Amino acid sequence: MTRFEIFDEVVDIMANDSATCKDITGADPAPFRAGITEEMSDADFANLVNEYLCSFGLTGHLDFYTYDQAENLFTPFRVRRYDDKLYVTYGRKGSGVEKGDIITHLDGLTITEAAEKYSFMFSEKNPDRQAEIWRYIMKRYVSQFTVHHKSDGETETLKYQPFTEDDTECEEQQFHLKKLSKDTAVIRLPDFMTDKPIKNIVKQNKRFLRKCRYLIFDVRGNSGGSDINYDPLEPYCFPKGKTKYDMSEMSQERLFTERGCKLRAEFFRSLKDAFSEEIIEKFAREQEEKAGKGWEKYDCGTFTVKGKRNPEKVFVITDDACGSSGDSFVYEMALSPKVTVVGRNTRGILDYSNLVERNYGTFRFRFPQSRLCCIDSGIRYMGKGYPVDIYIPWTPEHLEHDVDLETVLTMIENSRKNRK
Asked: What is the mean pLDDT of residues 278-295?
């Protein structure tokens, strides 16, 4: 397919197959199409298509990218904006930066100027909720950046260079249970792509979890996956016995078009490592059976959880980079009277979800098949996220020590005192 044909199909999909078509029309595609040439680079074409998609205002579950951008390039560091600076919150070895360094310019522009240049990207207006957007901008648009190093006070300009392998040694990306005391532990959950590491944690720590009084789930930066993969954790978050909870606000309707269902079935069958073959085939066959049936509602209604006596109190630490199934996890656990959510509101990208992928060889296009029914009642989480009980704004102090976790530990200590 030519670049023009790909773009025209993307526009057609957004008008007919994407779940956003019921609520959002996006910008006039004509000016974007006028900027296309067959000679433009793959990266420039992907960026142009994304500028068009940004006009739909979604903060996730809608993306167009090159195969290299998706599969072969990994972010060398992560940043958060505070005032007119980007603070490095994590830097890989060899990236040229480390935690605590301050980026002052991107391609010669101040951070304020860069924010203005890429304003079409910022559906999130609160800087406290823009970490993922800045990561995206760095990966897609930036050639070089000016950084002030915390260690020696020197300032230099470096070329932005993505890595070709993910950082598997990064502690933030590893599942683990860490015992903080004889009755307290924190479980790190970087994603819900598979249930294997979660089942392993529960299995290896079953005896401790039976006696644990205070359990902390750290889902900051959780990149999502599938809701069913965190099922093994639900009993620990809800009170002992069977309890019903109202999930009607999470009811969805899905758009089953011929093209959308065909693509989603193919997408499921490409996820061999995420689910069992039986589950994959079940999901894929559902798509094939529903093809062409249009909108269909999925009423969540109530769900029943058989909870455990321990832990007595559960804390969930989250932030604006926790999205998709991470959003769902925070929403569901917050229904329990045992749970307190701490940190910053989640990413809030469940308004439109259940990804469909169109594979163009060099390019990939992902769009949502479902929408939350509560949108019809004016309830949206896009741009706001699922709320926390205790809000802790991000500041550079977070680079010196874990402010969020320390806040939770103080609450636990106060709880212990009240028990005496």
From this structure: 92
